[in-house]
Amino acid sequence: MAALSDVSPQSHARRALLRALAAAALAWVASPGRAADTYSAETVKAAFLYRFGGYVTWPPDALKGPRFTIAVLGGNEVANELERLLPQHPIQNRPAQVVRIRRVQDADDAQILYVGPGHAADLQAIIAPVARRPILIVSDSEQGLDGGSAVNFLLVDRRVRFEISLAAAERSGLKISAELLSVAARVEGGHLQSGARCPSSLPYGLDSRCQLRVASR
Amino acid sequence: MQGGTRLIAGTGLALVCAVVVAQQLGSADDLTSMSLKALTNVEVTSVSKAAEPLGQAPASIYVITHEQIVRSGAVSVPEALRLAPNLLVTQITASDYQVSARGFSYAPQAQNYSNKLLILIDGRAVYNPLFSGVYLDAQDVVLEDVDRIEVISGPGATLWGANAMNGVINIVTRPAYLTQDTLAAASGGNVQGHLEARYGGKLDAETAYRFYGKAFASGAMELADGSSAHDGWNRGQGGFRIDRSLADDTFTVQGDGYRALESQPGGPDERIYGANVLGRWQHRGEHSELQIQAYYDFTERSQPVGGSKFVLHTFDVELQQALQLAAQDRLVWGAGERLNDYSITATAGPNGLLWVPKARNLTLSNLFAENTWSIVPVLRLTTGIKLEDDPYAGWQFQPDVRLAWDVARSNLLWAAASQAVRSPTPFDADVREQVGGQVLLYGNPNFHPERVSAFEIGYRTQPFAALSLNVASFYNEYRELRTVEPSVPGGFFPLTWANGMRGHTTGIEAWADWQVTGWWRLSPGIATLHKALGFTAGSSGILGVSQAGDDPSVHWTLASSMNLPRHASLDLSLRHVSELPDPALPGYDELGARLAWHPLSALELYLTGQNLLHGSHFELPAPYGEAIRRSVTVGFTWQP
What CATH class does B54-543+552-638 carry? Predict the structure, then answer.
């Protein structure tokens, strides 16, 4: 008590302020976060893959099976997220499932195929066998659309965005809703194209002059 | 009292734990009920570097990503270039930075600026053809709009042309459709501050645009005695970019205008003005791709004291075509024409620079072809040549041979041999420097291009997903490097330029990216340089070999990027530059740091520190360089 009595009001006030600040800092650190707080990019990509199912029209033949399948090639974390998500979330009025595949041929019965970023270099070769199947092919690499995918994920300003190739969707016999197109970062035009495209196979250095397909992190 | 101490200690501990423990992340379940639009706006935590677009390129390339630039706290181009371990960035004064790769940075006693490195901003060369070198104080971009900066060390002349002798820097901004948000940002601190705004939108489904304004101001640095160097400066810039992308065609039109005022001790400000506009058309065909680009660039610099001034208009048009000749064979060829129309007003009075002639049109034509052939699927051979008709030296041949071998998946071994030149300029050929009414130095109309033959070998590997490694080494043989010589043999004044130096340099560049955990990335990088230069017979060697550049033998960086809980992030970057030989400067270490917090997903608040280890430090000794002050800045970026 004696010690308290010789404390000046000034230092008392300072201590009170310090204590309040400390308490605020503690509260800031310790309080549970809001639900929609921070997500990994893979979580958001999984959510998109699930949502794509509602904005794409498949030809009737492609939806004959009892289940809606998302095949994942080289994207373990995205597959993990989908495994948690899909059991409670049907797509196109069917129970949905995720299958992890090692060869693209195993995606033949899937409605959506996600090809992870590790396959950027040889994307075109990888998806060629299923390019004309009614499968929404979603890639995740800098020049993904050049490889022939219909949707490609981008990371722009810490947000997961995507670009759409209408040509590739058309080739697979899929229709993409206007609503999905409207939120795409970019939509590539409608007629069929093939062959040499921008940068992936240009010799070194030239890529940067060729900015039509500049994807972003 | 005790309770308070305990509470504070506890808070500290909790903070430390929070930093150490990986973040709590939300699950995809929370996102399923969101609107699509809202989903595209969910912020994600990622310190990982996306797969490098140039990962297969047989050259020493470091790509500075958008994320790295934003997280570094840089507000100007040279500060952003510090992120590349294969570049040496030296701050001389408040506004003057010299950037070099593989040596030849700056030799103030011989007025030899860093002149063997080419810089392009969205395909527009900003290398100054009058003095050779880059005025970085005249170049700026909104760094949030930059997609990436590709830094290629080693010759890039076959594709990029003369002066890409030791490297090329490509600053690539995002197309307008990826900058559709409004952005407002401001910062202020004890040394520098900035203010910027960008607005993006769509004209129709295929056409997007953005326009921006940016202002930057820096206080003065210090002289050796601690007094002000009176070299504070400010600049303002505005510009736009429009991109129209159709199925087979892409059109881009972009332009900028700027002005800057730089304080001079005891006199009126130095003034810089400039504007440029660029148009580009790209057409994709079945097995080919065509690009046509044209630009106009105006830049002016004037010093009211003495009245010296230069005005430069550049007109440039380029065409290039990429052809897939066969499945394993790809050819790129192109041609270009550039006109530099300049006029230089001499400094009045007995001391100064005269130019004879003082105005001229320089035309530069070029033709190049480069072929990449996959001998077998894992082995690619690239051969190319550039023919360039230089206004001073006539036709120059700049060939290049590169071999890339995919040793295994994610393992690339490459080797290259190439030749490149640094073109003569009016400063080499036409200048007359006077002191006290007497000519001190005459330009040399017979000055030859400086030449390099470069031999490189490199390896790039990603042993596991979280780690990538790059190493490259080079042996460069230089001929015809510029020297200062007496114009009369055996005499002294007046001096003149000559091509009296030759020799070689060797060095290693290495860097790594290590994703330690999901929220922490470490990036070390190092560059070494050994120079063995000497004078040719007949050269006086009066200024010594250091007139070719005052270079450290090693510089390294260590960068750390952390995502903290609660939308906070901490970035640190330590750099070391070893001693400079002549003029001599002891080696130094410096530290940059940035702590950022996103209270809302649209808002970022940050605290940035640069050069934190010393109250001030020299990167070039006095009187050539000034003491660069420690800088602390607070700021925000708002991007709804």
Answer: mainly beta
**Structure confidence at residue A20 (pLDDT):** 67
Contact between B50 and A197 using a beta-carbon 8 Å cutoff = no
E-state strands within B97-165? 97-100, 117-121, 124-125, 146-153
Is B27 in Cβ contact with A43 (below 8 Å)? yes
CA of A50: which chain B residue's CA is closest? B32
Q: How many residues in chain A? A: 217
CB contact (8 A) between residue A26 and residue B11: yes
From the list A193, A207, A216, the residue facing B174 with the nearest CB is A216
Contacts of B49 in chain A (CB under 8 A): 217
Cα(B418)–Cα(B451) distance, integer angstroms:
11
- Strand ranges (E), B443-565: 450-464, 467-486, 495-517, 520-528, 530-535, 554-564
Mean pLDDT (chain B, rounded): 88
B28 to A141: CB separation less than 8 angstroms, yes or no: no
In terms of Cβ atoms closer than 10 Å to its own Cβ (0-12, 13-18, 19+), residue B365 is middle
Q: How far is B454 from chain A (nearest CA, A)?
A: 17
Supply the pLDDT for residue A188: 78
Shortest distance, CA A105 to any CA of chain B (angstroms): 21
Q: Please give the residue that has the higher pLDDT: either B304 or A60.
A: A60
What does the alpha-carbon distance between residue B398 and residue B131 come to, in Å, rounded to a whole number? 22
The model's pTM is 0.80
Facing residue for B284 by CB, picked from A46, A85, A197: A197
Q: Comparing C-alpha atoms, which of B316, B358, B272, B278 is closest to residue B96?
A: B272
- CB pair distance less than 8 Å for A50 and B28: yes
pLDDT greater than 70 at residue B13: no
Q: Where are the domains of chain B?
A: 54-543+552-638
Dump pLDDT digits (tens) for B529-539.
999 999 999 89
Delineate the domains of chain A, giving CATH numbers in brackets. 41-213 (3.40.50)
Closest-CA distance, A140 to chain B, in angstroms, reads 10
* Burial group, residue B349, by CB count within 10 angstroms (0-12, 13-18, 19+): exposed
Q: To the nearest whole angstrom, how far is the Cα of A107 from the nearest Cα of chain B?
A: 23
pLDDT classification of B288: cutoffs 50, 70, 90: confident
Which residues, at least 6 apart from A45, have a Cβ–Cβ distance to it below 8 Å?
A: A75, A78, A81, A114, A140, A153, A160
- Please list, residue by residue across B240-258, b when 16 or more beta carbons sit within 10 angstroms of its beta carbon and e when fewer do: bbbbbbebeebbbbbbbeb
Contact check, Cβ <8 Å, B175/A167 = no
Q: What is the mean pLDDT of residues B140-168?
A: 91
Segment B250-254 shows an average pLDDT of 94
pLDDT (tens digit per residue) in A149-167: 999 998 877 788 898 988 8
> Which residue is closest to A116 within chain B, CA to CA?
B51
Tell me if A196 and B288 make a contact (CB, 8 A cut-off).
Answer: yes
B230 has pLDDT over 50? yes
Helices (H), B323-420: none
